[in-house]
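Checklist before submission:
- one chain only
- standard amino acids only
- sequence pasted in full

Submission:
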Amino acid sequence: ANTNKDSLLQIQADTKEQLNLLASQLLYIEAKGNYADFIYREGGELQHKLLRLSLADAKTQLDHPHIVQCHRSYLVNLAQFDSLEGNAKKYELRSPWLPHGIPVSRSQGSTLKAHLKTLQ
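Returned file contents:
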């Protein structure tokens, strides 16, 4: 794994399409059927790019210590999130860049809480 916090992420889609961005730009990736929706920041704005690739493939390609799966449909860059809110029934990750929370599966709650602490 590349331990440089701001490494270049290169994601190759099934369609030969490629997305290159810095780890610091990536907020999260959401699975949408056979696609993965990459949500990232560029020039202070939120952008998104839909690539034909599974979340599992995205996870394999993004070998980065801060990019973790928090839910069956989401991979997040924990370095972009500042809090985990909610209770055992419903956890959500919060980021200053997003108007909404990202769902966290119950099994991931305590792991993510510990990981977030190490980043603050």
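Reviewer check: Residues 109-119 form the longest helix (11 residues).
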